[in-house]
UniProtKB/TrEMBL annotation:
One of its GO terms (biological process) is regulation of DNA-templated transcription. The gene is SOH1. It comes from Epichloe festucae (strain Fl1). Component of the Mediator complex. It holds the Pfam family Med31. The keyword Iron-sulfur does not apply. One of its GO terms (cellular component) is mediator complex. It comes from the Eukaryota. This is Mediator of RNA polymerase II transcription subunit 31.
Amino acid sequence: MESSPPLPLANGEPMYGGYSRFEIELEFVQSLANPYYLNHLASQKLLSQPSFIAYLAYLQYWTKPPYLKYLTYPGPTLKHLELLQQERFRQDIMSPDLVQRLVEDEMKAAVEWHKE
């Protein structure tokens, strides 16, 4: 049975530790913008678990309205969510060199964005 995305802050939504499913998934998907966190997930072997890979596929709903507007850093968040769909990237993110390159790319993108 496939789970559907949560409604953004719907009234009557069940709470988990005081947070809605929407809030929990928003915080998690935004954490994917951090290359060091991606490396941590890989080091914990989560990126090789079929159930976790399926969860990453499920999170693709964040790429579409109305969910997209809730992302604080949509560029790196969506870029990494897309890359995480690829088995090769899930393996390669273990490399400190790749992590550093992603960090540098994001810093360059932020500088360029502020120039405009």
